[in-house]
Amino acid sequence: MSLRVYISVDIEGMEGVVSYNETLRGKGDYELSRRRLTKDVNAAIAAAKAEGATEILVCEGHADMENLLFDELDPAADLVSGAMRSSLQMQEIETGFDAMVLFGHAGGGQTVGGVLDHTFNSKKIHGLRLNGLNMNTEAVFNAAVAGHYDVPTVAVIGDRAMVNEVHAFLPDCEGIVVKEGISRFSARSIHPVRARELIEQGVRRALRDRDRKQLLKLTEPLTMEIDYFCSAGADTASLVPGVKRISPRTVSFTGDAETVFRLHELLLFRTVDEYPFGF
Fold it and tell me: What are 92-118's pLDDT values in tens digits?
């Protein structure tokens, strides 16, 4: 029997990452973090292989989406990388998978102790809702996307706050905690070697139990509401046909799931330019 495993990857939730020094290209510890991230993802790939995966797809979802060291990634997996696509962190999930692992996504600030908490675009977006449900946590939104395509989210890897936020929607999802947040820019992390052991063990358990994992499935049509930090973001978004301005900094769109998921990428990533005078 075939087993297709999808792994969505971000960097903020991984052990040891506590500041932009480790998450942004050109910063002092970025190269170290991307190498550690690649090794951590390899632990999840090893787990999928051990459970008989016939196809493994890794989707990059951090910043420019070119962070993993491809030559050092386990050759059993294919890689989706690069920005300017139709989904921020879920490209090709609609092609059909048996399980999804969410890797390293930051929390959305819904519980205390979320390290580097943000909602997809830390400079532009304050909040996100689907059908009135708070989707500030990237992992929760991604689980809803996967659920639409009947793919269960079997495991999430990150800090305690993010795992708690996911468990509010999917209590039976395997939560693999690799750090405990102290503040937005501070955490107690376990050692990377131990983190990889936990990742491999946890993902293996989750995949073995995948048929009993619930889906996060929302009723269509979907209504997506986006709160921008600045009214300029709502100014731009409201130019898109079908998008409604519902407050100075908030827009709304109602439609079928596929359209909403594509607009998610457009409104959170492509249309939120800086104000030309920098204030």
Answer: 999 999 999 999 899 998 888 999 999
Angle at 98 between CA 115 and CA 137, to 5 degrees: 20
Q: Shortest CA distance to 59 belongs to which of 41, 84, 79? A: 79
122-180 pLDDT per residue, tens:
889 999 999 999 999 999 999 999 999 999 999 999 999 999 999 999 999 999 999 99
First to last CA, the chain: 56
Structure tokens at 101: 């692992």
Model pTM score? 0.96
For 4, the 3-state DSSP assignment is strand
Residue-wise pLDDT tens digits, 20-38: 999 999 999 999 999 999 9
Q: Which of helix, strand or coil describes residue 45?
A: helix
| Dihedral (CA of 34, 40, 41, 45) sign | positive
For residue 182, how many other CB atoms are within 10 A of its CB?
13
Residue 272 pLDDT level (bands cut at 50, 70, 90): low
Instruction: Tell me which residue of 136, 121, 146, 132 sits closest to 229, measured CA to CA.
Output: 121
Dihedral (CA of 201, 8, 176, 214) sign: negative
Task: Report residue 121 as tokens.
Answer: 């675009």
> How far is it, in rounded angstroms, from Cα 5 to Cα 48?
7
| Extents of the domains making up the chain | 4-212, 222-270
- Tokens matching residue 212: 């009993």
Pick the CATH number of 4-212 from 3.40.50.1980, 2.30.30.240, 3.40.366.10, 3.40.50.10780: 3.40.50.10780
